[in-house]
C-alpha cells in the first residue's frame, strides 16, 4: 500500500491536456490562488507521466482524450509508482466507461470541464487533503451502474433505452416527467406533430402500449 505523501503548501498542481487553450485557462485560473501553484503543463499523457515523476506535484489535472498516451493510461502508469500524486480527471465527457475507467486507473476525482472554476479549486483542495471528489453527474453515473447490478428492472430499462436516439431519449424523459406533447414541444423546441412521431416510435422501441409504460421505463432506469 502506497504511503500517503504530505501535502505541501501551496498545493503543487500539474496540468495535463493536449489543448493549449485549456492549459492556459487553467493556468490563469489557478495562478491567482495563494494556496495553489502550477508547477508544470504537459501536452499529453506521456509527457505528463514524466513530469509527474520529475516535478512531484501534489495534484494532477488530467485530461482523458489525448493522442498517443491518453489520460487513463497515464493515470495507471502514475499510480503504479510509489507515493503517487493525486489525480483529478478533468474532461468534457461523462460517459460511463470514462468514469469507471478513470476510477479503476486510480483517479481521486472526476470533474467535467464545464465545472465552475470555484468548484475546480475546491476539488483540488479537497483531493489534496485525501478526500475524493466527483461531479454530481458522475455520482449519478455510479449510482446508475450500482442500480443496474442490484435491480434487474433497472438493467432491463437501461437496455431498452439504449436503443433510442438522443432526441428520443429526451422525449422519453419528458414523458416520464409527466409533460404533455405540447409541453414537450415547447421545452425541446419541436413541433407537436414531431413530438407525436417521437412518442409513436417510443411505443415501438420500448415495447410500450401507453405513456405510463414509457414513464415507468424511464423511472426504472433512474432518469427521473
Question: What's the short story on this structure?
Answer:
The protein has helices spanning 20-31, 45-55, 71-79, 96-105, 117-128, 136-150, 152-161, 166-176, 181-188, 192-206, 211-220, and strands at residues 11-16, 36-42, 59-62, 86-91, 109-112, 133-134. The chain is of the alpha/beta class. It is elongated and about 60 Å long.
CATH first level of the largest domain: which class? Alpha Beta
- The separation of the N and C termini measures 40 Å
Global Rg: 21 Å
**CATH homologous superfamily caption of the largest domain:** Response regulator
Which runs of at least 5 residues are low in confidence (pLDDT < 50)? 1-6
SS strand fraction: 5-15%
Total count of strands: 6
CATH architecture of the largest domain: 3-Layer(aba) Sandwich
Total of helices:
11
Count of all domains: 2
Instruction: Indicate the percent of residues in helices.
Output: 40-55%
Q: What is the chain-wise order of helices and strands?
A: EHEHEHEHEHEHHHHHH
Mean pLDDT: 85
Structural class: alpha/beta
- The CATH topology label of the largest domain is Rossmann fold
Amino acid at each position: 500500500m502506497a504511503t500517503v505523501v504530505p501535502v505541501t503548501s501551496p498545493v503543487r498542481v500539474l496540468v495535463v491536456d493536449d489543448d493549449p487553450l485549456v492549459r492556459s485557462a487553467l493556468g490563469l485560473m489557478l495562478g491567482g490562488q495563494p494556496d495553489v501553484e502550477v508547477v508544470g503543463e504537459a501536452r499529453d499523457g506521456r509527457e505528463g507521466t514524466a513530469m509527474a515523476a520529475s516535478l512531484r506535484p501534489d495534484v494532477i489535472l488530467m485530461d482523458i482524450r489525448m493522442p498517443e498516451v491518453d489520460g487513463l493510461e497515464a493515470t495507471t502508469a502514475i499510480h503504479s509508482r510509489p507515493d503517487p500524486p493525486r489525480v483529478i480527471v478533468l474532461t468534457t465527457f461523462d460517459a460511463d466507461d470514462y468514469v469507471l475507467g478513470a476510477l479503476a486507473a486510480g483517479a481521486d476525482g472526476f470533474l467535467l470541464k464545464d465545472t465552475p472554476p470555484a468548484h475546480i479549486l475546491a476539488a483540488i483542495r479537497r483531493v489534496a487533503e485525501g478526500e475524493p471528489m466527483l461531479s454530481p453527474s458522475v455520482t449519478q453515473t455510479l449510482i446508475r451502474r450500482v442500480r443496474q447490478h442490484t435491480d434487474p428492472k433497472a438493467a432491463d430499462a437501461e437496455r431498452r433505452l439504449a436503443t433510442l436516439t438522443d432526441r428520443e431519449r429526451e422525449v422519453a424523459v419528458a414523458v416520464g416527467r409527466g409533460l404533455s406533447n405540447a409541453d414537450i414541444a415547447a421545452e425541446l423546441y419541436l413541433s407537436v406533430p414531431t413530438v407525436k412521431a417521437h412518442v409513436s416510435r417510443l411505443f415501438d422501441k420500448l415495447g410500450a402500449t401507453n405513456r405510463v409504460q414509457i414513464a415507468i421505463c424511464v423511472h426504472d432506469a433512474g432518469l427521473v
